[in-house]
Every structure is written in structure tokens, then in C-alpha cells.
Design a protein that fits this description.
The chain is mostly helical. Helix 1 runs antiparallel to helix 2.
Amino acid sequence: MARGGGRELNEDPDVWLSRCLLQDAIAVLELDRVLDASPEELDGYRLGLRTARQNRLELISRCTERRVARMDVAAGRVNAKVLLNPMDSRLW
């Protein structure tokens, strides 16, 4: 997801978050497969999945922070416009 060069900020947040959560579900299936095929590799594989999940959570956090920052900037601009031109900003 991070390979998109900021693409994640332009995607629908619900779709993007669902895709991240789907990775957790796939990880459970992968662990089951590794347990059947190579039980001795399970711990190493589990640690790798944990690292991948932590990286996804950090990515979600960073992208959420950027999204909130962009909303704050937009809200600040709107508030300044209303303050400077109250008659032009009426809703009716």
C-alpha cells in the first residue's frame, strides 16, 4: 500500500482500512497452512506476520494523521473565509 507514493490518501478510507484488516484474516490462514506444512517454521513465520501487521498499523496511523492534518488545514481556511467575509459565507 505504501508503494503508491501517497496513493493511500486518495483511496476511499473504508476500502483501504478493509484491505488492511483483510490482511489479518489472510495471516490466520497462512499460519494454519504453515502449521500443516512445516510446524518447525511456525514461530518464525508468526514473528514475520507480527512485524508485517505492526508495519500496517503504523502506516494506518501515519495516513490517519496526515488526513486529519489536511482536514484541519481545510477547516482553518473555511473558518478564515467566514471570518473575513461573513456575508458571502451564508448557508441560505
